[in-house]
Structure formats: C-alpha cells, structure tokens
Amino acid sequence: MQTKKANPLIYDVKEVAIIRALISHPEHTLSAEDMNVLLGTSKKSIDVQRKNRSEIINSVNKKYQSMTGHPDLLIAQK
Asked: Global pTM?
C-alpha cells in the first residue's frame, strides 16, 4: 500500500484562515493581534507570537510564489 504525501503547495488550515481574513477585511490588512487570534497564539509569549506570525507569512508567500511563478508576495509584512 502506498502512502500519500502531503502536497507542500497546499495551504494548511491556519494559512487559509489568514488568507480569508485578509480578503474579507475592507483594507486587506490584519493587525498582529488579529493574526494572533486566528493562529491561537494570543496567550503565548510575544516571542512565540512573532515567530508564529513570521512562519505563517513566509509559508504562505513561498507557496504563492511556487504556484504562480511570480516573485510577488501575497502577504507583506510591516
């Protein structure tokens, strides 16, 4: 029996939540606090919050670039 490997270009649940929130926000922006809520890190240390936000943003951008072939970022950090 063969095991299926996860497609590294498919967004995971947290990434999809961030993308949907960005799309639905009138200015297509999210505060760090909003992202922390979506990622479930609100009660974690500031360093953990920052690391998780950065990892998610980088992952979304890398997947987007791989899928589109464009160097543009889907999510820009301030």
From this structure: 0.83
